[in-house]
Amino acid sequence: MPQTLDEILHSALTLIDHADSGAITTVDTGVRTIVASTCPLADKLCRQQYEMGEGPIPSEVRHFDVVIADDLDTEQRWPHFAATAVAEGIRSLAAFQLYSNGDDVGALVLFSSTPQAFDTDAVVIGEALAAHAVIAMLGVRDGEQFRAGLASRDIIGQAKGIIMERYDVDAVQAFELLATLSQRENIPLRVVAKNLVETDHPTTSIT
């Protein structure tokens, strides 16, 4: 698993133009672990979030599939962590939920020295890499949270397919529509996707 997760992180830096560093981190039964990182700075920025109790890992990523900070120099959600990151030369970040189950959480976090580094294309790539990470972790660890994380991305994929077929748009545009609705309604992306799929293909009970 460590080698696979390292490869996922390095793929993120290769595929996402302005991603400079990243880490995969988990909190399981109170134990905080940096499972993989591309450099000491990414490791440090994840640990500082835990120490400060600020940042996407201890807050938003528990509830949302994707958390973006376009410019940490003006970020209001986590002022202390944002100031620390900017002092280290980091201006934007993207955090992707791997799983969330009670107090346990897993995240793929990417950092950039460029403001507004993570556009819709970057988010789509990050989502795909997060799904890959969940599969890798599921392969060696037993936990319902990993299955839930994988199921979440599967339902998002189904919802994207429905939108692509109905409105004749590509995968990036379909994801953008879902993300816009999620932000507008302040509803997790996976819930928006689940509602769409269930509305389009209602579950029928077999008696």
TrEMBL record:
It comes from the Bacteria. InterPro entries: ANTAR, CheY-like_superfamily, GAF, GAF-like_dom_sf, GAF_ANTAR, WH-like_DNA-bd_sf. It holds the Pfam family ANTAR. One of its GO terms (molecular function) is RNA binding. Gene3D superfamilies: 3.30.450.40, Winged helix-like DNA-binding domain superfamily/Winged helix DNA-binding domain. Keywords: Kinase, Transcription, Transcription regulation, Transferase. Residues 136-197 form the ANTAR domain. Signal peptide: none annotated. This is GAF domain-containing protein. It comes from Rhodococcoides kyotonense. The lineage of its organism: Bacteria, Bacillati, Actinomycetota, Actinomycetes, Mycobacteriales.
